[in-house]
TrEMBL record:
Transmembrane segments: none annotated. Residues 1-446 form the Amidase domain. HAMAP family: GatA. GO terms for cellular component: glutamyl-tRNA(Gln) amidotransferase complex. GO terms for biological process: translation. This is Glutamyl-tRNA(Gln) amidotransferase subunit A. It holds the Pfam family Amidase.
Amino acid sequence: EAFLEGIARLNPRLNAFITVSADQALEAAKASDARRAVGKAGPLEGAPLAIKDLFCTAGTQTTAGSAILGGFVPPYESTVTKNLLRDGAVFLGKVNLDEFAMGSSNKTSAYGAVENPWSRANDPDTRLVPGGSSGGSAAAVAAHLALGATATDTGGSIRQPAAFCGIAGIKPTYGRCSRFGIVAFASSLDQAGPVARTVEDCAILLRSMAGFDPRDATSADLPVPDFAAACARPVKGLRIGVPREYRLDGMAPEIEALWRQGLDWLVQQGATLVDISLPHTKYALPTYYVVAPAEASSNLARYDGVRFGLRETAQNSDLRDLYERTRAKGFGAEVQRRIMIGTYVLSAGYYDAYYLKAQKVRALIRRDFEQAWGQVDAIVTPATPSAAFGMDEKQDDPVTMYLNDVFTVTANLAGLPGIAVPAGLDAQGLPLGLQVIGKPWDEETCFSVGAAIE
Ligand code: GLN
């Protein structure tokens, strides 16, 4: 009830929730109390969570932040949300995101922008973005409108909004969480993960979300470790990689200082720093912005006005006209841009030059990390190149927006786990985050190092 009251009070300003499921939440909470009364409490019993509106929830509208899915009520539950329900979680509702998870500001949502709860801290006129694409998830958690939230990360969408909102968020190893029932953006990069106020809360949530699922062919059949236990593990003796190539030209001095501070904390706790090189880092953004739109253009072909959500037709419409009207009206500008780029790089004549080349470079980026794991146990970098920016900044320039993802896309291209941890404040008092990248399937070290920084 307290969370629902908070939502009623703050959501009109923040716009974090697209759908509030008040009645279902209260009913679920009651069932939870009943289970607790008979000693049958699950690990998340009664925990009020927000669900990114990219996860299909049976009987509850799932929009993916797009007008094209307005009114779409899935008949089934995603595996990740099903796992959370199995463990006793209570869903408060569905939270806002960039349309089809494409963006870094939450401004591409067809359901309106989300405001970062840290906005107006110093200046009542400055409204800040929460980051994206999981902006609603991060804003809801930061504003105490949920204890934690599900999110997804294709190129940074868990870690960047977590950093912008001063909370923690982990993108696990590709294959750790099932993608079944999550609206697809770029299938070889998409991973689900939690955002929460602490590293340990993320660990508890991830343990419930993760696990093998035969309905996702890329889901890994591996045991799910006790991530919360890893949070208490000392970092003494760990070798922390500091990749040279992440020290960007013109990097903001406060980001550089934050990074140094985080590394100092780890050294004080007995970790050692190792200077490493990930030589293909500079190709990560261009590679990502070829691979992700290519996969998106293919995944989004299914929104044709016939099978889901919006249908735009006119008198004498033929099938092609129905497709064109529906997609022209239903997709926003950023999604249309990605479809255009994606179909271009996949088209005969350009495929070798762009898509195939990007796949090759992706393999080199992956290899950079494989070599680094010979020398280090984890890699620490800044999570974002800046603190949260103003709602009106970076408005018309997609490329500037893409640069936000410079520190995060590598983990997706290489399939690695990465956690964003709140690590300090900038000169304006806005939160900044650090990122810990781990070896494949070694979220535990991400949690240990993340908890040591936090
Ligand atoms: N900002 C990146 C993009 O726009 C990443 C988004 C994501 O991780 N879903 O593609």
